[in-house]
Amino acid sequence: MDGVFDGFGEVFVIHGPTPDELVEDGQLVSAQGAQAHFDAVPGKFPLGKVYFTPGITDPESGVSPWDIAAALVAHKNGDWGDVCDEDKQANERDLRHGGRLLSVYYSRAGTKFWVLTESDRSATTVMLPSEY
Questions:
Q1: What is the mean predicted confidence (pLDDT) over 30-58?
Q2: Which of 50, 105, 107, 110 might form a disulfide with 67, Cβ 3.0–4.6 angstroms?
Q3: How far apart are CA 12 and CA 121, in angstroms?
Q4: Cα(130)–Cα(114) distance, rounded to whole angstroms?
Q5: Which residues pair with 6 in a beta bridge?
């Protein structure tokens, strides 16, 4: 479904599932369902298989399923979040020439978290910085 949503200070128009469609009853849709939804989100690069670390999925982390879904959509569309200018430039270079892509976001509760896509685009991991 096409949608418009405000993600991390920017408004995105996307064709495919919105973050609200990736969350069911306060949880990310099933692993297989979520993967299919993330694959359907258009963007600048494929996310590959999406992984979530134990800390990021802990209800006490302050990161909601909606925060994760919104971050994945933003990341896939080249919104690198709260990275420094040097890291933004590195991401843009690595997007064109291959290399790991790192985005930094804050949940609506204020928790900092990372989204990291491997250089071969085979996998993306959502994690807390302390889990790196």
A1: 77
A2: 107
A3: 22
A4: 10
A5: 11
Domain hosting 111: range is 2-131
What is the length of the chain? Answer: 132
Give the mean model confidence (pLDDT) for residues 49-60.
88
Do 60 and 72 touch, CB atoms closer than 8 A?
no
Q: Tell me, what amino acid is at 67? A: D
The first and second tokens of residue 18, run together, are 């919105």
Whether the CB-CB separation of 80 and 64 falls below 8 Å is answered with no
CA angle, 93 as apex, 36 and 67 as ends, to 5°? 40
Query: What are the structure tokens assigned to 46, written together?
Result: 């494929």
Percent of the chain with pLDDT over 70: 71
Q: Which residues of 52-84 are buried (b: 16+ CB within 10 A; e: fewer)?
A: bbebbeeeebbbbbbbbbbbbbbbbbebbbebe
